Description:
Oligomer: homotetramer
CATH superfamily of chain A: HybD-like
Number of strands of chain A: 9
Radius of gyration of chain A: 20 Å
Number of helices of chain A: 11
Structural class of chain A: alpha/beta
Number of domains of chain A: 1
Largest interface: A-B, 36 and 36 residues
Strand content of chain A: 15-25%
Shape of chain A: globular
Helix content of chain A: 25-40%
CATH class of chain A: Alpha Beta
Distance between the termini of chain A: 48 Å
Amino acid sequence: MQYRTDLAIEQAQNWSGASGIRMRSARLNGFTRTEVEVQSEEAARRLQKPMGRYITFETAPVHSLAQEARQALSGEIACVLRSLLPPFGDVLVVGLGNRHITSDALGSRVCESVLVTRHLKDTLPPPLQGRLRGVSALAPGVLGITGMETADMVRGAVEQTRPAAIIAVDALSARECGRIGTAIQVTDTGIQPGSGVGNHRMGLTLSTLGIPVIAVGVPTVVYSTVIVRDALTLLLRSMPEEQGDHAAAADALARKVTQQQLGELVVTPREIDQMVGELSQVLAMGLNLALQPRLSIQEITTLMNEAM
Amino acid sequence: MQYRTDLAIEQAQNWSGASGIRMRSARLNGFTRTEVEVQSEEAARRLQKPMGRYITFETAPVHSLAQEARQALSGEIACVLRSLLPPFGDVLVVGLGNRHITSDALGSRVCESVLVTRHLKDTLPPPLQGRLRGVSALAPGVLGITGMETADMVRGAVEQTRPAAIIAVDALSARECGRIGTAIQVTDTGIQPGSGVGNHRMGLTLSTLGIPVIAVGVPTVVYSTVIVRDALTLLLRSMPEEQGDHAAAADALARKVTQQQLGELVVTPREIDQMVGELSQVLAMGLNLALQPRLSIQEITTLMNEAM
Amino acid sequence: MQYRTDLAIEQAQNWSGASGIRMRSARLNGFTRTEVEVQSEEAARRLQKPMGRYITFETAPVHSLAQEARQALSGEIACVLRSLLPPFGDVLVVGLGNRHITSDALGSRVCESVLVTRHLKDTLPPPLQGRLRGVSALAPGVLGITGMETADMVRGAVEQTRPAAIIAVDALSARECGRIGTAIQVTDTGIQPGSGVGNHRMGLTLSTLGIPVIAVGVPTVVYSTVIVRDALTLLLRSMPEEQGDHAAAADALARKVTQQQLGELVVTPREIDQMVGELSQVLAMGLNLALQPRLSIQEITTLMNEAM
Amino acid sequence: MQYRTDLAIEQAQNWSGASGIRMRSARLNGFTRTEVEVQSEEAARRLQKPMGRYITFETAPVHSLAQEARQALSGEIACVLRSLLPPFGDVLVVGLGNRHITSDALGSRVCESVLVTRHLKDTLPPPLQGRLRGVSALAPGVLGITGMETADMVRGAVEQTRPAAIIAVDALSARECGRIGTAIQVTDTGIQPGSGVGNHRMGLTLSTLGIPVIAVGVPTVVYSTVIVRDALTLLLRSMPEEQGDHAAAADALARKVTQQQLGELVVTPREIDQMVGELSQVLAMGLNLALQPRLSIQEITTLMNEAM
């Protein structure tokens, strides 16, 4: 009876203190870092999220951040990614979603700004050789465009190129308007079936691919029902005569009116073009810093320009 | 105390039968054509729309229409445009809005598919010469990109090239979710200050430019408040104990919760990229058929390809 | 001692009548269709082209063709493709090259306009079901962008999805300026290592992938040496006192001056953006007609629009 | 009897030491700066370039430059521009050319990266207010797209907004292959009729617009004849028995074979997409530094991001 969300943090809010669910928050310089750890199968069922770690950064809208704040955010994302990546071996970055739909294009946009090095490792000049981790990048497109399951294409690439891990980037769906463009989730549980803006039919996980899959995502869309539900919750709270579980009541009312009568609408902010552009830069820099810890931002930028 | 809408039809709904407001609807083959005529200054004040004619086509979402239905719609738009255009003289097509924001890019996209002929009239082979109306096209961009008022740039172009009329195309804002991508408004009143997705600071009208300005627009965005308001209205209607003006009550509640507590959000459907692409094709063909009544669709398409 | 060309027709010109090389031309309505058949291993060595069939259409520049001529060309390409495709089974369309370099983007552009049906076969309404051939599409990108060999990515997709054949589309390099945008080659020999604008490092052939690979390509670039060589050949021919093999002499001179002193330059016509856009439409329609012989152009266009 | 070039430096090479033509070169850090001053009407006739100053930077291909070298180049361009701009008053940046043809898109691309401030001057926070020069930007498009002369549209904008000067950016045509993407010309003589990749029909000059017009351009295309001519010149030089004016002889031969027999082709390097992308960044930063001398690169970048 709940709206789907791809954010563990939104699910965990309702279960704080429950057994098997551990939640810790830290205030960093200008943003919040919350880790939800789902520690038991029972907790996973409750949260409808697989066992594992979910680290979420909450920030002001990325486009309102100054240049230094963006770099700090990229640096924090890199820290988390490094702690989840295996120490050695090539990494395959997978950009999920449909690049022709802006709100679903985050994954493929990040792919375009990741420093790809797998093919360079042996041909680079000595000062760089040995300092690069092998990185490849794949934006497989969606079923409707390719006729092939994304999961099949990723499995094919894994079998042919044998990376040690995958980082999968995707646009997410959230349950609160305020998360759009402001929450960045990193998890070691991979991509689940039914998740993401495009609702992936099959998952990308350690168990389906045989290597660790780290997923990075940001909400870019919200259901119109959610907007109504958020409003109704606030409304009920402001009525002294109304008692009980406002959230559940608002939920039921919102579903009733929007799904049956208005029609469900998936909406995205008017500024989606700019938002996705900026988010993809911040995420790509986070990935690059995580994947190439021996390179400076300057060296990464220079190599990116040469690779174009 | 009402939400802004660029559609006269939405304003007129509340004033049907009022003096000075004439409203006629016709069911065409698969869509509805409604004309609102604002006949007096008093009616204009009530509707907050200047005196003049507003013709609105309501259709299923354009991307769900079959090819023939789209062509029929273009043909009907062409009929209305022809009835509003002066019989002779060049026409300047102005595409308003910001082409970097998909929901505001309708105007500039239409410009790219309009058959531009002003410079060709004398150089074409004899069978075509004399059959072409002179058409020019300008997508001036928005103040934030150019540093110049759109209205100033249009005035400059008018003074230099002396067209007999302007057709201005713009993305609109609506007051009901269901209008997004489904209502096409054509009016002889031009572009008003404060209208459009980008909220034009100055108007483009007969009185400011000295030539007739026909405006064509389609809603592409809606305020989140509107989604909440629509839901609340339905909710109140479904409660037998609630009496009175549901619309006004819902309005007040919606404003209270969204603007004060949620923050106002301008949203657009997730499929906005596809929607704007298809709308611009339908509108451009409507303009081309209206502007070149002596050419067939085939000839227009061929000339468009050559001009690219 | 010859320039590389991806066109068998350019190689075969010098060996007409040689054993194992069969060459037939037909004048069709507005364009020429030439088939080169390389029938022996010895002939293959001479031509530096593997044994097989190479059908080339020569036309006026595609953008100068009227709409009907383009459709006729698509129809002829479809005929040839159908004669080379296996009668049953899914087909994977592979768009080779780098979509960020316009002259190398032909393959990925064609992919975007191919009707993809593999995932639709079971969900379509009855009138369409059973009439569709399963088609999937992959534009794998180039090594510098993905870090993975194109051939590896295609092999992965083949192993996961088991198509009966591949159609690979690529931008080619020619040895005569006049071939750019005017020669369309279809061959049953697949993609060879070292071919194409981007110089593929590994081939895509029946022997490497285990299924037939039909390659479709159009020249989009030419070496500056070639321009010089063409000019020198004409120059030598016009000098009565010069005797002997003008072609070889021009070749040697052209190489000497351009490679050693001017630097080799790969050039493309100024109108490359428009040229690639139009070629990709003609080729994609050719593929669609070949792959869906039971659909009309109208049905294909409608399904394409829905799939977007 | 000479090929058209938009570079005064190429014309002046043949007239060094002639009266009324002054030419000075300086080796800067990694690139050359050459100033050609055309001081008399007679010299202007000889060079087919109007009286005025032409400053040309010659560099390695911009995409091969390291980040610091690019910034240094932007800084030098800024210095020259500042010396040519009037000390006070708004500046209108005009991006000439066709943004749909990559080799002609340099002007409109630069426009997109220029910091536009004319509309901000009064609304900025105090620390920035008073430090900004008013800048507007216009990319009017070409005649074939708009149906209006570029010069008319610029005149309209000038009359409406009254800038003190114009900086016009355009893609140029060169007479030597080696200049493509490597020579940046800045001149105080404006845009001449017949110049540029798109061959402007009318000029933009002090005499036609009433305000100073500074033109900035980089060659992006070359005629195929030029490639042949360059090769023939080298060839003749290498023949000891040939005497006399190799350049003129090569010229005559090149014209004869390419124009009469091969057909004239305007070509551009295969890497044109990347080349124009990088050139536009370097030029835009040069303009921004020249126009906003009181802002740091950091402040310019931040304001650009906010403006998007």
